[in-house]
Design goal:
Number of domains: 2
Strand order of the largest sheet: 1-2-3-4-8-7-6-5
Radius of gyration: 41 Å
Helix content: 25-40%
Largest sheet: 8 strands, antiparallel
Mean pLDDT: 80
Low-confidence stretches: 1-48
Shape: globular
Length: 218
């Protein structure tokens, strides 16, 4: 019996090893399958989440256009030309006007130097003139543009806009003239432009010059 016991024990040990391996493989297959199923199930959820996630909202903030804090004065001289000139430009209100004698000497039929104020220390000056022809206006404006400063300080250094700027002036969809805006130095900006037979030269704080030119209606 002792001799038969050894071989039976050995066969019993061999039989145990024989069924442990298939069971282990089966467990491994089940684990891998569960992982694969989890990944496959999660991907549609991720896609659905991405598809239903709200798009980012882009907000544009538009600042209100500055308006004067003081009332504009009445013009002492009213003509067909001055009637078209504005009483306010952004936060600047009309204060006074006087004839621009040097422009009259340059061939203008009518020429004025208008002063505007923001009610404090800020001022804006506009010289405006009417010439007999568009060609005469263009020629006179060319002399003003030629006298403009050519240096262009860095906007980062001055806190002002990128200058110089040049372009066309349009009226009713047609080209009516041209404009030039430069850094005038000492914190000021200068704009010169023509509109048909009219010529304008504006001097304003550098930070306001581009917007003031755009707000001037003539």
């Amino acid at each position: 019996m002792a001799e038969g016991t050894g071989p039976q024990h050995g066969r019993g040990g061999g039989g145990r090893s024989g069924w442990l391996l298939p069971v282990a493989l089966a467990v491994a297959v089940v684990v891998v399958a569960a992982v694969v199923v989890g990944v496959v199930v999660s991907r549609p959820h991720e896609a659905a989440t991405a598809a239903t996630a709200p798009a980012p909202v882009v907000t544009t903030v538009t600042l209100p256009v500055p308006t004067p804090t003081v009332q504009p004065s009445a013009r002492a001289t009213r003509t067909a030309f001055t009637a078209a000139l504005p009483a306010t430009v952004l936060q600047y209100a009309y204060v006074s006007s006087q004839p621009a004698s040097d422009w009259l000497a340059g061939g203008a039929l009518e020429a004025w130097t208008d002063t505007y104020s923001d009610g404090g220390t800020g001022t804006l000056t506009v010289q405006a003139a009417q010439f007999p022809t568009a060609a005469a206006a263009t020629a006179f404006a060319a002399t003003l543009t030629a006298a403009l400063p050519t240096a262009a300080p860095s906007p980062a250094a001055t806190g002002g806009p990128t200058l110089p700027k040049t372009g066309q002036v349009t009226a009713a969809g047609a080209v009516a003239g041209s404009y030039t805006i430069v850094d005038g130095g000492k914190g000021t900006g200068v704009a010169v432009w023509t509109n048909g037979t009219a010529v304008f030269r504006m001097v304003a704080p550098l930070a306001d010059i581009v917007n003031a030119y755009g707000a001037y209606p003539v």
